[in-house]
Amino acid sequence: MKKLNVKALVSIGMLSSIAYVLMLLNFPLPVFPNFLMVDFSDIPALVAALIFGPVAGILVEFIKNILDYFMTGSATGVPVGHIANFVAGILFVLPAYYIYNKMRSKKGMVFALVTATATMAILMSILNYYVIMPAYTIFLNMPAMASPDLRQMIVTGILPFNLIKGLMITVVFMLLFTRMGSWINKQHYKSA
């Protein structure tokens, strides 16, 4: 594990602030439930991971969600959505980081991001079925959804939403990476 120096900590703080602002600029997709929102706040976490290592990416995800929870709150009173966002971010950033480190090229980054999208979408569907949706029903004092209804919502709503969101993040990140890739790699080697 890399030891984070002052430059890394300041950069993580700045990237966390950018991620928080990007998290505020969220929007729904028309065909999905309103509680599913697209934002591009995982991009700064991915940049942090690529430059400073996986711990930095996790810290950006954590700080972004802590800031959002304290500034905007939660409908349930507990940060179930923020925890879900944190886990989804980690499930996206870490596979992308580890795969890209094995295949350091533009094609490697595309493969890493597509794999990270699939990983995040599948694992978040499983977590939504067993943990996140039941937690929402408990904290909102709502009746639990019947298993077939919940499965239907995950298969037709949550899974495709996460796939589309991941692919949108992939496209935006690749637009940045084509311009900043050599700089990110140079910073990575400086911080190593």
Automatic annotation (TrEMBL):
The keyword Cell division does not apply. The chain crosses the membrane at residues 12-31, 43-63, 83-100, 109-132, 152-177. It is found in: Cell membrane. The keyword Cell membrane applies. Keywords: Cell membrane, Membrane, Transmembrane, Transmembrane helix, Transport. GO terms for cellular component: plasma membrane. One of its GO terms (molecular function) is riboflavin transmembrane transporter activity. It is a multi-pass membrane protein. Belongs to the prokaryotic riboflavin transporter (P-RFT) (TC 2.A.87) family. Probably a riboflavin-binding protein that interacts with the energy-coupling factor (ECF) ABC-transporter complex. This is Riboflavin transporter. It comes from Mesobacillus foraminis. The lineage of its organism: Bacteria, Bacillati, Bacillota, Bacilli, Bacillales.
